[in-house]
Design brief:
Blueprint: H1 2-26, H2 31-41, H3 53-74, H4 77-105, H5 113-124, H6 128-137, H7 144-170, H8 177-212, H9 216-236, H10 241-253, H11 258-282, H12 286-291, H13 293-317, H14 322-332, H15 337-348, H16 354-376, H17 378-387, H18 389-400, E1 414-417, H19 421-433, E2 437-441, H20 444-453, E3 457-459, H21 465-470, E4 478-481, H22 486-499, E5 504-508, H23 515-521, E6 525-527, H24 529-544, H25 549-563
Parallel strand pairs: 1-2, 1-4, 2-3, 4-5, 5-6
Helix pairs in contact: 1-2, 1-11, 2-11, 3-10, 3-11, 4-5, 4-7, 4-13, 5-7, 5-15, 6-7, 7-8, 7-14, 7-15, 8-9, 8-10, 9-10, 13-14, 13-16, 15-16, 17-18, 24-25
Length: about 575
C-alpha cells in the first residue's frame, strides 16, 4: 500500500507540474512559478487532494541531485573567461554585498548572526532557470547584458558548493567552529582528491566501455551510477547529496563524453527538478502569506530592490554601459532553484526554522512573479533613471560618451550597430570593397579589439540618439542594425529613420513575429536568421533532388512572398 501511495504521489506531482507549467507558459510567466503554485494546490494547506509531502520530497532529492550534476557537467571555464572581471570578481562582489544586505536586515526578522549569514547567502543566489528562460524568450541571451547575467549566474551557481560546506559548519558551537570548518574542508578536499582519481581512471573507463556497447541504456546506467553513487558517498561522509552530484558532474565535464552525458541526463533533470519545485510549493501556506505580509514584503524588498541595486552597480564598476547594467540587475533580481536547495539544507541542519523557510519561499514566489514585469519595463525604468540628474550622469554620461571617430569628414558610409558575428562579417566584406564604415559597439572588450585594429568605432549604445548622431547617421548611406535583442533594434531603426529619412536601413531580428514590428519602425529590409537558414536548407535539398536552380529560385521567392508580413495573407 505504501508503494502504491508513493506512485500516486509521483504521478500527481508530475501531472500538477504539467498543468501548472502549461498555464504559466500560456500566461507568459516562468514555468517554475506554475510548478510552485501547482504544489500549493496539492499541498496540505489547501483543500482537495493532499499529496504526501515526505514522499514528494524524497523524489525531489533526485531533482536536486540532477540539477547539481548537470551544473557540474555543463561548467565551462571558458564561459567565465569570456566575461573576465564582471563574472569572477563582480560575481563574488555581488554575493558578498548581498550577504551583507541579509545581515543588515536580519535583526528586523529576529535572526541571529549565523541565521543572518544563511539568509544573506540564500537571497544572493538568483534563479538561473528563470533568468535564462526570460532572456531567451526575449531574444537577449547573446546581448551584452545577457552575457553579463550568464557570467554572474555561473559564479553564483558555483558558490553554492562552498556555501553548502561552510554554512552548516558555522551552525555548530562557537568553540568548535574552527574545528568544524577544518573537518568540512578536509572532507571536501578528500572528495576532490577522490573525484580527481575517479575522473582520470574510473569514469573514462566506465563510460568508454558503456559507449562501446552501442547501448543507450547501458551508457545512461553508467552515468547514473557515477552521478548518484558519488552523491551517496558524499552524503555518507556528512556532506550534502547535492555537493557529491556536482563533483560527479564536474568530473564528467572533463571527459570526451560530457556532451552525450548531458543529452542523456537533461530530460531526467527537467522531470525531477519540476517535482522539486512542486515539493517547494507544497510547503507554502497561503494563510501564512496573508498573516505575515510585512515580513514577506521586507524579504521581497531585499531580493528585488536590494539585489537590483547591487547587481546594477557591479557591472557599472567594470565600466559597462548603464542600460546593460540595469537590465542585468533586473534579470538577477529574484531567487530560485539553488536558493531552495540551500533553504532545504538549512532546515535539515536546524540552522533556520520553518517560519524563516516559509518567509523565503513566499518571497521567492513573489520575486519570480514580478521579474518578467521588471524586465518588460526595463527600458522605461532606464529612461526614468536618466531623468534624475545624479543618477542620469551615472547611467548616461559617464559610461555612454562616444569615442572619437578619427575621421571628421566621414560621409556616405555604413553604420554597423553591433559587432557580433553578423556585424563582423559585414565589416569584412566592406573592408574588401574599400567601403567606409563605422562600428557602434558597447562591449568594452570588443571596443578594445576595434581600437587595436584601427577600425572606426564608437563606444556607446546604438539605441540612444546621441550615439547615433555621433556616428553621423545624417550623412550615412546605410544603417545595419545587428543587435541581438529586438527592442534595441527597433529603437535604432526609429531614431535612424528620424535623423535621416532617406537612409537605407537593414535590421536583424530573431523570430518571424518580430519582423513586422521592425518594419513598422522604418526598416527597409529585415533579416530573420532562422528563416534564411531554412531557405538555405531548401536550396541544398532541391539540389540533391536534381531540381534546376531556376525552379529553386522561384520556390524561394514564392516562400519569401508568403512570409512577408507587409503582404496580405
Amino acid at each position: 500500500m505504501d508503494e502504491l501511495r508513493l506512485l500516486v504521489d509521483l504521478v500527481v506531482a508530475i501531472a500538477a507540474a504539467f498543468v501548472g507549467g502549461s498555464i504559466a507558459h500560456r500566461l507568459h510567466q516562468p514555468v517554475i512559478l506554475g510548478y510552485m503554485l501547482a504544489g500549493m494546490l496539492i499541498g496540505p494547506y489547501t483543500p482537495g487532494f493532499v499529496g504526501d509531502v515526505h514522499n514528494v520530497q524524497v523524489m525531489a532529492e533526485l531533482g536536486v541531485a540532477f540539477l547539481m550534476f548537470a551544473l557540474g557537467a555543463e561548467f565551462s571555464p571558458s564561459e567565465l573567461l569570456k566575461m573576465r572581471g564582471v563574472a569572477t570578481i563582480g560575481g563574488l562582489l555581488q554575493i558578498g554585498a548581498t550577504i551583507l544586505l541579509g545581515l543588515a536586515i536580519s535583526p528586523l526578522l529576529g535572526l541571529d548572526l549565523v541565521q543572518g549569514l544563511f539568509f544573506g547567502s540564500v537571497i544572493a543566489l538568483s534563479s538561473t532557470m528563470v533568468a535564462l528562460k526570460l532572456l531567451m524568450g526575449r531574444g537577449e541571451l547573446e546581448s551584452l547584458h545577457g552575457r553579463i547575467v550568464l557570467g554572474i549566474l555561473i559564479v553564483q551557481d558555483l558558490s553554492l558548493v562552498p556555501m553548502m560546506v561552510i554554512l552548516p559548519a558555522l551552525a555548530g558551537p562557537i568553540d568548535g567552529m574552527v574545528v568544524s570548518l577544518a573537518v568540512a574542508a578536509a572532507k571536501a578536499a578528500a572528495i576532490l582528491a577522490g573525484a580527481r582519481y575517479l575522473g582520470t581512471k574510473l569514469a573514462p573507463m566506465m563510460l568508454s566501455r558503456a559507449a562501446e556497447t552501442g547501448s543507450r541504456e547501458l551508457f545512461l546506467l553508467a552515468v547514473l551510477t557515477l552521478g548518484l553513487g558519488t552523491a551517496l558517498v558524499t552524503s555518507a561522509l556528512g556532506l550534502s547529496l547535492a555537493f557529491g552530484a556536482f563533483m560527479a558532474g564536474l568530473v564528467i565535464s572533463e571527459s570526451d563524453f560530457s556532451h552525450q552525458v548531458l543529452a542523456e541526463v537533461i530530460p531526467l533533470r527537467d522531470i525531477f527538478s519540476s517535482v522539486f519545485f512542486v515539493s517547494v510549493g507544497m510547503l507554502i501556506n497561503p494563510l501564512f502569506l496573508a498573516t505575515n505580509l510585512p515580513s514577506i514584503l521586507l524579504v521581497v524588498a531585499a531580493i528585488v530592490v536590494g539585489k537590483l541595486v547591487i547587481c546594477t552597480v557591479v557591472p557599472l564598476l567594470f565600466h559597462y554601459p548603464g542600460r546593460d547594467a540595469l537590465l542585468a540587475g533586473l534579470a538577477l533580481a529574484q531567487i530560485g532553484e539553488f536558493s531552495f536547495v540551500l533553504t532545504r539544507l538549512g532546515q535539515d541542519k536546524g540552522i533556520i526554522d520553518a517560519h524563516l523557510s516559509s518567509l523565503i519561499l513566499a518571497a521567492a514566489l513573489v520575486s519570480i512573479l514580478v521579474n518578467p514585469l521588471l524586465m518588460h519595463f526595463g527600458g522605461h525604468i532606464h529612461t526614468l533613471l536618466k531623468a534624475v540628474p545624479i543618477i542620469g550622469r551615472l547611467f548616461w554620461e559617464r559610461f555612454e560618451v562616444p569615442a572619437t571617430l578619427g575621421e571628421d569628414s566621414l560621409e556616405h558610409h555604413v553604420v554597423i550597430c553591433g559587432y557580433g558575428r553578423v556585424g563582423k562579417e559585414m565589416a569584412r566584406v566592406l573592408d574588401l570593397r574599400g567601403e567606409p564604415y563605422v562600428v557602434v559597439e558597447m562591449d568594452p572588450f570588443v571596443v578594445k579589439g576595434l581600437r587595436r585594429s584601427g577600425k572606426a568605432h564608437i563606444y556607446g549604445d546604438a539605441a540612444n540618439p546621441p550615439v547615433l548622431a555621433h556616428a553621423r547617421v545624417s550623412t550615412a548611406r546605410l544603417v545595419a542594425a545587428t543587435l541581438p535583442d529586438v527592442a534595441s533594434v527597433e529603437m535604432v531603426v526609429r531614431y535612424a529613420r528620424r535623423m535621416n529619412p532617406s537612409v537605407s536601413i537593414i535590421a536583424r531580428v530573431h523570430g518571424i513575429e518580430s519582423v513586422n514590428r521592425v518594419l513598422s519602425a522604418g526598416a527597409d529590409e529585415v533579416v530573420c536568421p532562422e528563416f534564411e537558414a531554412g531557405l538555405e536548407f531548401v536550396r541544398h535539398a532541391m539540389a540533391h533532388f536534381g531540381v534546376p536552380e531556376s525552379e529553386t529560385d522561384l520556390l524561394v521567392t514564392k516562400r519569401r512572398a508568403e512570409r512577408d508580413p507587409r503582404l496580405p495573407d
